[in-house]
Amino acid sequence: MKKIESLKQVEALIGETYMYALIIGIIAVVLAFIIANLVKYQGGKNPTDHITRRIWYIVIGIIAPIAFFLYNSLYVSNYITKAPLQAKFSSANLFASLAVLGVFVVLGILTMLFMRRSKWGSILGKSK
Amino acid sequence: MAQIFVIGIGGTGMRCIEAFTHLCAIGMFDNTDVHLLALDTDKDNGNFTRLKNLKEAYIKTKGVNKKQFALQDTFFSANLHYYQFSPDYSRQSTFDILYDYSQTKRNDPNKSSIADLLFTDNAKEFDLKHGYRAQTHLGSMLMYHSILAEAEDSDVTNLKGEGGKTGNIKGFIDELANACQSGSPRVFILGSIFGGTGASSIPIIPKALIEGAKKMGVAIDLSTAYFGATLLTSYFSFPSPNATDLANQKVIATSDKFALNSQAAMMFYEVDETVKKTYQRFYMMGTEAMERVRSGGAVVEGKTITGGKDQANDSHYIELLSAFAAWDFFNSTDEDLSHLKEKRKLEYLYRTFDDNGKITFEDFVGSEKKTEFAKRLGMFTAMSYLILLDKYDFFGQAQRGELTRVKIEGYNDILKDETDALNHFMSLAHFAVVGEAVQDGWLRQIHRSAGGGDKFLLGAGVFGCNSKRECGNFDFNKELFQRGSEFESNKFSTGLLGGSIYDSFVKKFITIDEPANITNKCEKLIKRTYDTLCQLYNFKS
Fold first, then answer.
1. Structure ipTM
2. Cα torsion angle, B182, B183, B184, B189, sign
3. What are the angstrom distances between the C-alpha of B140 and each of A38, A69, B15, B88, B230?
4. Could you list the residue range(s) of the whole structural domain that residue B437 is in?
5. Where in chain A are the domains?
6. pLDDT in tens, A25-68
7. Inter-chain contact A50–B405, Cβ cutoff 8 Å?
8. Do B406 and A47 touch (CB under 8 A)?
9. Nearest-by-CA chain A residue for B404
10. Is there a single domain that holds both residue B471 and residue B396?
């Protein structure tokens, strides 16, 4: 990775970070989707398979933005040489990490609603 | 919608109706209204009670306090109407008391001389509550006149077997008369010819129904109906009575005479004009060896049980064969039967099994329908695991609304009584879980009677589980049908990534459309389960 020294470079980096946030959000959804499908339907009284899937979904939903945020703060921001530029990037990093969470939640819930009769959709829980 | 009439007589007849009811449950009588009449003198008989429990579970499964209909391509497809008739021997329990014999003999010996000619002293004095005890000459007369007396009795109201209620013989005759108005209905009679009640009733039943209808004032002639029956010869034995039992009971049917009884009955049927005139077809069946009768899986030893609640014999594959004789009769063409009736010809049919000792689907239904039978029985057995084992409890999940987690809604409207009834039926059909153990149901009993192992229809593993745990670990997705059989390929895989049978089942179930033409939710769920299993096991639904 190259050193970031100018405002123009930081702005380009912020743009890329948002792009990566979108991709990481999608990857997190795909990962949660795969794990949801690996959790078997459970028979018997009070099955908890959908709760297991929900827990996995929440865990991935927490880990993905935090990991994204930490990666940018601890690794990427080291390449930014000037403090004002670093400050600009770190606030953008926070928003990008929230964007990861946003993509994960919105895309996740929309696809769950769309695939309601599936293991993925079961994360939403019992319908009334 | 077809209407068929089935009559089971005596202890063996009850077990044959039991087998017939299981055929209805696996779906061998689609789109059919089945009128079942259970005829036995022994009201408290264990087999009679088991049949009553079975039919009750069947009817409740189809809907509690709901109008019931016959369906197609599903389990429990036949609409069952149940009737029963037992001559009342609770107060007048011997021939002597019933016909006032002793007094007649004192006052007018001429009148009683016919009874002296035909019946021994013991025959006049034994307790009729446990059946006619191989005294077929006495039994024929008593059963015939009991039916006529019941039909003539204006105090007895006409009860139809509808809405889960048990009908009576008047209701049965009335339904038969209605069916006669629009054609020639078929009546099949199931019973043994080696004992008492069955053997004595088979020859008189058609005539008793025809005459009974006249006594009821029904204007329709019931003799247009076609009649068929099983001639079920001796296939089990039981301990011989000791001298004390014999002295107490006066008359006891002993199994060493069963072969002789069968022979005598068949010789009579062959020459009797009434039998020849009324019946079109007889299905002869029996086994080479007479195995000792079992109850609750154990061989019955010691005391001779003449009847009552203790007489709850395990089921035998020959009873299933009898039920299939009825199936064959109801699936015969009208031309065949009308030809026999016109010519006043009585046709005798029989089927032999292969010498290899294995009983296959083809042995019951022939090559044309073997796949159908294999599919129905196999899928029904698979469904039983999904219902009976706690680890699956699929119908329980649906009823409790737990399927709504995948937005499968509406099944929580199913009444708990209906799923309980289905559970009860399945436990009578396959096995009942009692604590950690399993108790054999009908299917396991007939498997044992056929020699066990892989000698009977389904894979040996189906019958090899002896505890709840073993049943839970059984891979019924792969081992339902026998290895090396033509249905071995009817199985499904649970996937490479550690799937499970239940997981594969629910995934497929979700993709199956809900049947639109069924109103009762429990039946809807049964039909959808049937379609799911057919697809999983690669059968056409």
1. 0.90
2. negative
3. 67, 93, 21, 15, 17
4. 361-536
5. 7-38+47-124
6. 999 999 999 999 999 999 999 999 999 999 999 999 999 999 99
7. yes
8. no
9. A126
10. yes
